[in-house]
Amino acid sequence: MTSAIILVLNDHDLGTVVSAVFQGAYGGTRPAASTLSKLIPIMLCATGWIVAFRVRRINIGLEGQIIAGGLAAGWVGINIEVPWGPAHLLIAVAAGLVGGALYAGIAAWMWARAGASEILTTLMLNLIAIQVLAWVIRGPMQDKGSGFARSESVRDSAQWPEMFAGTALHWDVVGVVALIGLTWLVLARTTLGFRFDMVGANPEMSRHMDVSPARFGVLALLISGALAGLAGSSRILAGEVTTVSDNFSANYGYDGIVVALLARNSIPGLLPAALLIATLRQGGGALQSRAGVSSEIVLVVQGLIILAVAASVLLEHRWGRQRSAVPVPEAAHHPAGGL
């Protein structure tokens, strides 16, 4: 509603804007495939956030972990030659998983050993990853033949095949959906998920139950980083441009956090939330050409979404406190009239 008011106040026709976004996101096979391809990194990062949050760890470093995973997968895809093509792809994907997990492991180790806030360390590691990426693609991994700040393209054997020819949608989407479903099952139906919940709800009780908060906190952060690293590998091995370059992570890590918050940290709720953000991302590019509206309005809408989610959580928390503070009538303690 607020976004609509902003557009109307700036003399933009709301119907034209909505139509431009929809046409830009779904007005043909290629735009629709591009929109669906954007779901992959968004949902992986959102799932990573949820896994860490189950033990009440705040992983702000998903963006840096995307970069770490993408760099690892890109290096394997460019420099390693494997006779059997599918093995090359699997090794590159595994490198992305490990790269993201190890990068998250730095913050996890600092938290477990020194008590450093993972919020600050993961945020700072994002900045370090951006600088490392800038150096690597202008140095060790630069494509010397092009003269641009980017790597060579990964080998064909390390690329995910296209699901539809000539589109941005690749077959990695199937594996990603299966992995997210598996993560949900583990969190909801297994002992590991129960222990994550126990640590998140009451670390002190967990210690008495011989469930180490530090051990499971580190494990959750490693899994979270691995999922972000997989998103990074997808950006390189199944991207429209299969090179490592500046900003290939494209803020998908932060979008993942927005989606997780919008879904109220529920994996089953991720799809509609991620679809909304992916639609805004893809369709936002058509706003300037079709409706004469700056595509930056998409960032405004995302900011408003975050504020709305934060406000709803705050109101729910205050409402819960008010309800708990309501005095209980004496008769409630003595149903039989106090006898």
Mean pLDDT: 87
The run of helices and strands is HHHHHHHHHHHHHHH
Helix content: over 70%
Please report which band the strand proportion falls in: under 5%, 5-15%, 15-25%, 25-35%, 35-45% or over 45%.
under 5%
How many strands appear in the DSSP assignment?
A: 0
Number of helices: 15
Radius of gyration: 23 Å
- In terms of quaternary structure, the protein is single chain
Instruction: Give the end-to-end Cα distance, rounded to a whole number of Å.
Output: 56 Å
What does this structure look like?
- With 339 residues, the protein is mostly helical.
- The protein has a domain at 41-266.
- The protein is 70% helix and 0% strand.
- It is built from 15 helices and no strands.
- It has helices at 2-9, 14-26, 29-54, 62-79, 85-114, 118-136, 172-189, 191-201, 203-208, 213-237, 252-262, 270-284, 287-291, 297-325, 330-333.
- α2 (14-26) crosses α12 (270-284).
- The radius of gyration is 23 Å and the shape is globular.
- The chain starts with a helix and ends in a 6-residue tail after the last helix.
- The relative contact order is 0.19.
- The model is unreliable at 331-339 (pLDDT under 50).
